[in-house]
C-alpha cells in the first residue's frame, strides 16, 4: 500500500523559509511522480510543484517559480519542497500526492497535509 506522510509545516513570518518533506513508502518502482499541492480556506486546490522520481525532472506552478524548489532523495524515499521568500498568500494546507507522471489527471495517493501559515 502506498503511503505518503508530510512534515515540516509551521508558522513563519513573511519573507522567511520553510522546508516541507514527503516520506513515501509502498512503491515497487521509481516510475512515479510526487507533486505538492496546496489549498487555502475558501479556495480551490492548486498544484505547486512536481518531480519525476525516475529522472528528477521538475515542473513548477506559477506560485512556485523563483521561490520554491522541489527535490528528491531516492535513497531516503523523500521529496522535499524548499520554500523561500514566503508570502501571506502562501498560507494553506500543503499536500503531497503520487501519480504515474507529473501531467497525470488522476493522483492516486495523498498525504494527510501539513499546515503552512505565513504571518505579516
What does this structure look like?
The structure is a single chain. The chain is mostly beta strands. It contains no helices and eleven strands. It has strands at residues 3-7, 10-13, 18-25, 33-39, 46-52, 58-60, 68-73, 78-83, 92-99, 109-110, 114-119. Strands 2, 4, 5, 6, 9, 10 and 11 form a seven-stranded mixed beta sheet that branches. A four-stranded antiparallel beta sheet has the order 1-3-8-7, with no helix packed on it. A hairpin with a 5-residue loop joins β5 and β6. The radius of gyration is 13 Å and the shape is globular. 32% of the residues are buried.
Write a brief structural summary.
With about 120 residues, the chain is an all-beta fold.
Name the descriptors.
11 strands; about 120 residues; globular; mainly beta; seven-stranded mixed sheet; four-stranded antiparallel sheet
Strands, total number: 11
Radius of gyration: 13 Å
Tell me the number of helical segments per DSSP (H or I, 4 or more residues long): 0
As a percent range, the share of strand residues is over 45%
Amino acid at each position: 500500500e502506498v503511503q505518503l506522510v508530510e512534515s515540516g509545516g509551521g508558522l513563519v513570518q513573511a519573507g522567511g523559509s520553510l522546508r516541507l518533506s514527503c516520506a513515501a513508502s509502498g512503491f515497487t518502482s521509481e516510475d512515479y511522480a510526487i507533486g505538492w499541492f496546496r489549498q487555502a480556506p475558501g479556495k480551490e486546490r492548486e498544484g505547486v510543484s512536481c518531480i519525476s522520481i525516475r529522472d528528477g525532472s521538475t515542473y513548477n506552478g506559477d506560485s512556485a517559480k523563483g521561490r520554491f524548489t522541489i527535490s528528491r532523495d531516492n535513497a531516503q524515499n523523500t521529496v522535499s519542497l524548499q520554500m523561500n521568500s514566503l508570502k501571506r498568500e502562501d498560507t494553506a494546507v500543503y499536500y503531497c500526492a503520487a501519480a504515474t507522471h507529473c501531467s497525470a489527471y488522476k493522483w492516486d495517493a495523498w498525504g494527510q497535509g501539513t499546515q503552512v501559515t505565513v504571518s505579516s
